[in-house]
Amino acid sequence: MGVPFLILLSVLSAQSAQSVPSASAAPEESGRLVILNKAADTAQILQLPDGNVLATLDTGAGPHEVAVAPDGKWAVVSNYGREEAGSSLSLLNLEKLEKGPVIDLGAKLRPHGLAFSPDGKSVYVTGETQAQLWKLSFPHGTVEARMDTRAKVSHMVALGKERAYVANIGSGSITPVDLAAGKALDPVPTGGGAEGIGVAPDGRVWVTNREADTVSVVDGGKLQVEKSFDCPGFPIRVVFSPDGALAFVSCPQAGAVALFDARALAPLKRIKIALPAADAGDGRLFGSQFGDSPVPIGMAAAPHGCLYVALAGADRVAVLDWKARSVLRFLPTGREPDGIAWIPAPAGRD
User: Under a CB-based contact definition with an 8 Å cutoff, are residues 339 and 35 in contact?
Assistant: First the structure.
């Protein structure tokens, strides 16, 4: 074997080694997680990367979703309720790591989806029992508008530049809402069980249709379905990488997260989360519906390259490296985690 051949072999080997993700290539994690434990009626704030619990705060019954104010100082929690419909929002002081005021909505709305206005002066919340989207002043909670969705089981909400979009499980549709006029437009059919919803940076609206086992992409200008994907496994939530290049869809029945190219509108890969359920499901929202699946639902994507996935059936958060397409580890939580948000650590305390 000649010397030139050995040199070429050495170069090729080095290039091959660089293309394979290694342990040293794992993201440099930082920040904090806000996690809602539905069955425990608590919110936890975890320090990253070690997962140490900084605070465990009481909420109302059945806390489902959490939204963080644009300045990062406050979080709002929707208290969905259980047998009795919920009627309040809990505020969390993220600077002091303590409970804030409770906003009494004055009606048993089953509040669920939440979204802040860009200026942080208003918060939008869906009301399932009223089939409405409410606009509240923040932090006082004064009702500024009530907008009919003209649909059934209006569950999640996402904000675009000029419109809000509400996902309607019972109608298999989304309702666009003109924010300036405070008026809903005609619903757009997407598929049975339309639940998860997110607005990508390019203005497209992604919808997860859990009963149809599909994901729909709606043109935010034309308000028409641009493309649909098969997505087996009860697709239930969708979030995006901070640069808008990737869409992540949690599939609790499959125990996996599906990745899509959000720009080319193409499926990429599924990341299987190999962790069994913590118990038989008694007292949990979905019970034993998904068998031994860890039940991935809520997700939060952080700028450093990690996707944090709440495993409602396993009482854990899965930490995924979306570049390496792998599961890094698991963080313990309270019982039945669902709503989740990532926030930067306060300056000097990372």
Answer: yes
Length of the chain: 350
CA-nearest of 130, 141, 77 to 107 is 130
Contact between 103 and 88 (Cβ < 8 Å): yes
Which of 148, 169, 190 is the last residue before a domain boundary? 148
> pLDDT tens digits, residue range 201-247?
999 999 999 999 999 999 999 999 999 999 999 999 999 999 999 99
Grouping H, G, I as helix, E, B as strand and the rest as coil, residue 342 is strand
Residue 74 sits at φ, ψ, to 5 deg, of -135, 155
Last residue of a domain, one of 105, 133, 148: 148
Which positions of the chain have pLDDT values less than 70? 1-25, 348-350
Kindly state whether residue 154 falls inside one of the protein's structural domains: no
- What are the structure tokens assigned to 39, written together? 């069955």
Give the Cα-Cα-Cα angle 38, 163, 344 (nearest 5 degrees). 50
Structure confidence by residue, pLDDT tens digits, 291-316? 999 999 999 999 999 999 999 999 99
- CA–CA separation, 196 and 218 (whole Å): 13
Strand partners, 114: 125
Three-state DSSP class for 242?
A: coil
pLDDT at position 283, please? Answer: 87
Which residues, in sequence order, are CB contacts of 61 under 8 Å at separation 6+? Answer: 41, 79, 80, 81, 82, 84, 86
Q: What burial class does residue 274 get, using C-beta atoms within 10 Å of its C-beta: 0-12 exposed, 13-18 middle, 19+ buried?
A: exposed
**Phi, psi (deg, nearest 5) at residue 246:** -120, 145
Q: Write down the pLDDT at residue 346.
A: 86
Which amino acid does the sequence have at 225? Answer: V
Domain limits for position 242: 29-58+231-344
* Angle at the Cα of 196 from the Cα atoms of 67 and 103, rounded to 5 degrees: 30
List, in order, residues 6 or more apart from 321 with CB less than 8 Å away. 21, 26, 27, 305, 306, 327, 328
Say if pTM beats, i.e. exceeds, 0.90.
yes
